[in-house]
Amino acid sequence: MTRKNAKDFSSDERQRYCNALLTLKHTIEPGHTLSKYDEFVAIHYGVTRRLRNGIPIGDGAHFVPGFFSWHREYLNRFEKAIRVVDSTLSLPYWDWSSGNNDDTTSVFTDDFMGPPGDSSNGNKIMSGYFVESGWVIHPELDGGNNGSVLIRDSTLLTSKLSQLSDYGIAAQDAVNGDNDFAAFLPGLEGPHGSIHMWVGGHMTSMTSPNDPIFFLHHANIDRLWSKWQQLHPGPANYNPNDDGSYGSRLNDRMWPWDGSDDTTTTRVGTATGVSIQSLIPTYSDYDIVTPRHVLDDNLTIPVPIRQILSNVLQVRNQTTGGVLTRYKMIGSVPDKFAASRGIPNQILTTVGYEDRLGRSESDNDFVDVILEISHTDSQVNSVRGVQLGGDDIEIFVNGASTGTLVKTQEIPLP
What we know:
Layout: H1 11-25, H2 36-46, E1 50-52, E2 55-58, H3 67-85, H4 102-105, H5 164-176, H6 181-199, H7 213-231, E3 263-265, H8 303-311, E4 313-317, E5 323-324, E6 327-334, H9 336-340, E7 347-353, E8 369-375, E9 380-387, E10 393-397, E11 400-404, E12 408-411
Antiparallel strand pairs: 1-2, 1-3, 4-5, 4-10, 6-7, 7-8, 8-9, 9-12, 10-11
Helix pairs in contact: 1-3, 3-7, 5-6, 5-7, 6-7
């Protein structure tokens, strides 16, 4: 599902998105300590101080080449959590980089992300969805010692609004300039940090996801990275010098999605000193994500294919029960078979899925299942699944199983 500019969210989408946030904030799964939302806050806090095989390795997501890749995976997982609550939603982005004030003033409203802080009440948020009665900062996750009520700067839409122009220019220069990765990284991470400081309050610490504007801000950062990737595609343009601490290089595992690797966080709670590691979810040994896995943001995949992969088809590993969600476009060619049958103007696009259990860590392609999709610019007409190796794969169409994928077979479409 394509992410939308937050400015363009309808009143209904705003309401449903904010209600989904509140659901995550108030849902604690059995055996867990934190709500689903606060677990995301804890993960972001935890990645800033890590230990690997007893050796401190620092921050895995800030001021390192892994800044973009780690946050992309983080956003993808948060978006998935949102869609579990409401499958029609995508994560919106706040385009503070546009130079258009309306992109910002339309977001900081009572019916969406809430207003600036109230200067007469300690810069607390006093109206909207994220007031004290429904949005309490967990005491173990108050990295800036800002208190239990969400706070922001009170002058965001008045005296500080004009500052966004400079931050936006810097961000656009980073994206569109003749920049290699080494120059692009600080070029965009710099204004990213300025926006955190601009919002103020809880956004200024490493527990910044306490403020739900965090996710809209980072969705914009991810969008800008995507634009840069279109100008500098492929793994060769990601961290080519293998700089940074563990987790930043192309095939490094990123904590905490590292398959129970020997990496932990040494962060502790801000109230009692409880280990943050003990507060985050336990991930499967098979849940392994590297920067390579997230380089393809699917923006090059034709719209009708993205829509059918997001809303109609589901590819599942029968052994683990896990859904395969990582795919990339391998290529598109004219569909000669369709043309030979008198169906003109068809395109055959091949999409490759990664089945984690079906490949070795040294396999650079990460593709074990492919879908051959015949389509036009507006419509998918047929899909054929091909099993290349790994575990048994099952494909679902609108929730109904088509059975175990055996080598090559047609997938019936509704």
